[in-house]
Amino acid sequence: MRILIVNPNTTASMTEKAAAAARAVAAAGTEIIAATSRMGPVSIEGHYDGALAIPGLLTELKERQEAGYDAAIVACFDDTGLDAARTFADVPVLGLCESAVATAGFLAQRFTVVTTLERSRVLIDNLVRRYGMGSRAKVRASDIPVLELEDAASGAIDKLKAEIERALSEDGAEAIVLGCAGMTDLARELQDVYRVPVIDGVAAAVKQAEALVSLGLSTSKRGSYASPLPKHFMGAMSGFAPIRAAG
Amino acid sequence: MRILIVNPNTTASMTEKAAAAARAVAAAGTEIIAATSRMGPVSIEGHYDGALAIPGLLTELKERQEAGYDAAIVACFDDTGLDAARTFADVPVLGLCESAVATAGFLAQRFTVVTTLERSRVLIDNLVRRYGMGSRAKVRASDIPVLELEDAASGAIDKLKAEIERALSEDGAEAIVLGCAGMTDLARELQDVYRVPVIDGVAAAVKQAEALVSLGLSTSKRGSYASPLPKHFMGAMSGFAPIRAAG
Amino acid sequence: MRILIVNPNTTASMTEKAAAAARAVAAAGTEIIAATSRMGPVSIEGHYDGALAIPGLLTELKERQEAGYDAAIVACFDDTGLDAARTFADVPVLGLCESAVATAGFLAQRFTVVTTLERSRVLIDNLVRRYGMGSRAKVRASDIPVLELEDAASGAIDKLKAEIERALSEDGAEAIVLGCAGMTDLARELQDVYRVPVIDGVAAAVKQAEALVSLGLSTSKRGSYASPLPKHFMGAMSGFAPIRAAG
Amino acid sequence: MRILIVNPNTTASMTEKAAAAARAVAAAGTEIIAATSRMGPVSIEGHYDGALAIPGLLTELKERQEAGYDAAIVACFDDTGLDAARTFADVPVLGLCESAVATAGFLAQRFTVVTTLERSRVLIDNLVRRYGMGSRAKVRASDIPVLELEDAASGAIDKLKAEIERALSEDGAEAIVLGCAGMTDLARELQDVYRVPVIDGVAAAVKQAEALVSLGLSTSKRGSYASPLPKHFMGAMSGFAPIRAAG
Amino acid sequence: MRILIVNPNTTASMTEKAAAAARAVAAAGTEIIAATSRMGPVSIEGHYDGALAIPGLLTELKERQEAGYDAAIVACFDDTGLDAARTFADVPVLGLCESAVATAGFLAQRFTVVTTLERSRVLIDNLVRRYGMGSRAKVRASDIPVLELEDAASGAIDKLKAEIERALSEDGAEAIVLGCAGMTDLARELQDVYRVPVIDGVAAAVKQAEALVSLGLSTSKRGSYASPLPKHFMGAMSGFAPIRAAG
Amino acid sequence: MRILIVNPNTTASMTEKAAAAARAVAAAGTEIIAATSRMGPVSIEGHYDGALAIPGLLTELKERQEAGYDAAIVACFDDTGLDAARTFADVPVLGLCESAVATAGFLAQRFTVVTTLERSRVLIDNLVRRYGMGSRAKVRASDIPVLELEDAASGAIDKLKAEIERALSEDGAEAIVLGCAGMTDLARELQDVYRVPVIDGVAAAVKQAEALVSLGLSTSKRGSYASPLPKHFMGAMSGFAPIRAAG
Predict the structure, then answer these.
(1) Do chains C and F touch (3 or more CB pairs under 8 A)?
(2) Chain F: residue nearest E89 by CA?
(3) How many residue pairs bridge chain C and chain E with CB atoms within 8 Å of each other?
(4) Same domain, yes or no: C11 and C25
(5) Ordered per-residue pLDDT tens for chain A, 247 residues
(6) What angle do CA D210, D213, D218 make, to 5 degrees?
(7) What is the CATH number of the domain that holds F46?
(8) E41 with E86, same domain?
(9) Which residue of A29, B162, B235, E71 is most buried, as measured by CB atoms within 10 A?
(10) What InterPro entries has UniProt attached to this entry (chains A, B, C, D, E, F) (predicted)?
(11) Contact: D109, E133; criterion CB under 8 Å
(12) Domain assignment of residue E185, given as a range
């Protein structure tokens, strides 16, 4: 089984961190293929960055089709472009937020997502509500720019810990979801410190991808995720025109 | 007052239709500037088309900043890229779906949105729920490809009328919202036939744009719509890198 | 275009303040006609005051029909009698709360309404939920009796500012809605201080009224807002008996 | 224990029917005092009628205070003026809709309310949602004008039965709530026919009133139902000015 | 009328307290029959205890059928086994939480439930949401083990009072619901202290049981509470096999 | 990895079918241990059967602890006793309904659960709402007694197919969830027929169990699933008394 993990931002060190986290939990027969977007923002912080990361994401999904993959993961906690990717692909596509909150739901009745900047908090809260967890999950921002997570000296981990402690004492959180792909290497350590489940989206998404593939399930092509209709795409986007018939 | 209407698909005839609808309702001092995206799909049907229309939309918003506009409208009922556009712009940005359902809410307690294809129905239903109208509005698809609305001989209007009649008899609809920018020229005629309010998103958005500008209100730059943070954008997207400081 | 603003309480100074706010934002061709209820409470604080303000409101709507108006506004943030007014009138009727929260929804994903007394807080929270903004808006009371807003020496503005500051720091509010018609003159000043959108219901309702009239839209007379059925009204209310056939 | 039942419309035959239904279920020591509003519409069909029934309702509540009552019931399924009555009174006040749907909730997980006209359907659906039963209860209209229920030859009962049958077959209703005070005499007969619980609001409200009184519970005077603040009421409403200090 | 109150835990002193509270509010003709489960946990704190209390509850309901009862109450605030009991019995069955929150809903628009341990808080919050009160009621834990309520020297009442005070000051609670059967003797005293309605589930359930019986209403046997289908039960549970035909 | 699947009804043929389905999808290193409850109903149809199946379920979980298992699955689509099992166990516990609807959520935006009898429909609908899928999923009953699924000549499959066809044409379902453990062998065949994802709860739960174990995640012992407090259990339930200290 080959799982393609696409980092929709262009920072290769974050891809490597996510790939390492993925490989650490992948099953014996699973090959993790990591791709970094080659066009778009160096980090995804808010709606503008996210929207402009989608062409790069879709490009990776498309160009790697020939080599083949059995499932894909969008390695950003905002689930950037997830709906578009599911519409495009014939294989299952997983997002970090959706995978992580579904996983948390099996472990705890109430939990808190701790993300980076305030500008991402409402965006993720909207996702959590759309995924049906609005009455079970709270979202908190810890005031950490995404790229500070790549810098051990930034103090980012202390801010993150402080916010987790507030979630436990003020929210009655029974579990913690780490709300940024850049936090993926911290889950195990934080779980040991706080002795509650700490869920990382990269790891959660890998296991969901493996699950869907081994169950022979893929995105429904009936209704809202039906394959793109064949049509012209103009100008700089012309390369994205679908070439096959709609499902 | 100058209002920029961007058609995020690349079909100029739809832009013209929307511009005409906008000018028909614009106040005396309002100038409507119509722009057609120069990159992306010729029509927006589903998540894939929508995501790939956003760079073209943002390009128009950016390139026309120098000439200046006081508000912008995204002329697609899927509210394609609306969050990104609000994050980008310093002026108010309106979407057709959000404007139309807010307008319908002042006129009716229960209403139905009639859109084109099934693949757009769930997408719009998600928007309607996010905008808080989930318990008041139903969304129906009338099985019309978007570009058939440009062809008088396509039978599209008969399909649309049949679906409106079902909405009135089965949903208890008190008003109808036309769920595609390509239907903008039909609102007045359908209102005369069915004698219930028929709301067109283009017209609704023009009035909301005028309202916000004349009230001196613009998108909040605190929280989820804060201006893009300055950062590098790579590759084909490098032109989108924000150059000003964050709000 | 003639817009009738009815203050459903009997305090003329509040009517004047609302009329001034309305005229300040009205379009060139819009005439604002201000009316003060001649029967009922001097201010509306809670359910009892509100219910007993409705006959006075409907009287103004009725008696001014002959002179004519194209839309009406109920100038109380509780949206007092709004449903009854919409059922009665053949022209669009707007409420302050509904207009303000719809307007806020175009500017911010999360916002806070700051009202006067605790007894109005839950009433407005119920409105906000009915209008579909329950997951996006919080309602706060600032412990100000309505008529203190008419008295510059009362300290009311300081209490209001303190509550706005709590909304910004504790709620993550991206915009503020002023939850009382008596605050209408403060919006611009507060927006300058706090640098987030501050929405006043009177101004918002004027623009929505103008929008509906210029779009040729009025309240649906199918379903819940169908015109009153012709029937006898007894005793002191006999003057309210509808005289036309139902819609 | 003395329970005051106020019919907020002015049709005495409906009052008598409600009083008979109340007396049929009242406990041994309960005295039912029936009052018919002396001002307002002869039947309540929609928002306009309802709003103008409130002064008559409050007048009965007030004028009968000297004689005394331990609880009051608003005998209209729209719960007309219920919030105002609770704010006014020092004793518990019950509405038919709220009492009936709470009672149905103890008997069935899913149920249907069958009311009269379409114009009342949405109004009652809004109440049902406010009372928290939106995901458990459906509301249907049976196209019966209220006063036809007073006329045995009108065919109203056949229409009502047809709608109940649709509720059972199409909604999966486990119980039926009769959505009009004028249907109060039909509950037992319909329950015998359809062998599911059939709940009448008058009877339900009497038992809730007895319950609250015997438990020593009354409306909270903290927050949204705090007693009216002392203030002037002008003109034809001056008699409604509160004379006591606020709670 | 005979009302059976079953304490689903095995602590007889709690049964006696509940029976005394029930008798204190029962109508003249109501006989309260108190039963203590003879199998299961000595107190119910969380899901495990609750699930294992159900066979004992159902045993009491079954064995006392021959002597006869007109309604039954499950005397635990977790509404332990309520759905199963309603499916089993031919008479109405009431739970404390459902009865108490419905009663609170007649008295206050916003209220707080104060329960014992954190492990019960989410469980009760889930019930409150299922009963439709999620947007009106908050649930708080006061960190009191259930059996400490039986011990006057435990300091439990002080903890309970402190939590009520937080509910009043922080939640804007207009009424308080006591969230444990073991608090039943404290309601009147706390109501006197805090001067807001304080609702005890035992008392509320007794009045609801009396109401349903006197209205001739019982659990619907159509749909989700249909009588158990006749079938074999194996092993230690064989005595629970239904012997009658399904409803 | 050892996964214990407990069939909470006592019909061994259903256990075998579930075990076969589990083994068909289990990863290479996963051992499936199947257990049939030795006490309780032969099938679970409704609340009564479900409640009385829990002691048998917990007995299997307890007695097999010594031999050891890394995760457990409750093999009934009603998620019978799932909360109690999670409270009891130190390893992850999965339910079929929760696993299946989470899985469906990765594949489709709207889907339908098709279950057996009407009495199970509302019960499952309540679960679906609790799991946050209420606005995305519809639940349908196909009028099949559970044990008819064990009898190839019963016509059960035809009824099931007819209901799936209604789901596709009337609900706009993009995927189908099979709402009974007894349907587990039909998923692949039905997916081939209808060409939409068909999700079986047993298979979904196995993959979720494997996922949680390999991620080192288990049920949170903070809050609502905290380990049972040590206490006496009386009578026939005395064997269930927890012997370890609470978490």
Answers:
(1) no
(2) F48
(3) 9
(4) yes
(5) 999 999 999 999 999 999 999 999 999 999 999 999 999 999 999 999 999 999 999 999 999 999 999 999 999 999 999 999 999 999 999 999 999 999 999 999 999 999 999 999 999 999 999 999 999 999 999 999 888 988 888 899 999 999 999 999 999 999 999 999 999 999 999 999 999 999 999 999 999 999 999 999 999 999 999 999 999 999 999 999 997 544 3
(6) 125
(7) 3.40.50.12500
(8) yes
(9) E71
(10) Asp/Glu/hydantoin_racemase (IPR015942), Hydantoin_racemase-like (IPR052186), Iso_Racemase_Enz_sf (IPR053714)
(11) no
(12) 98-201
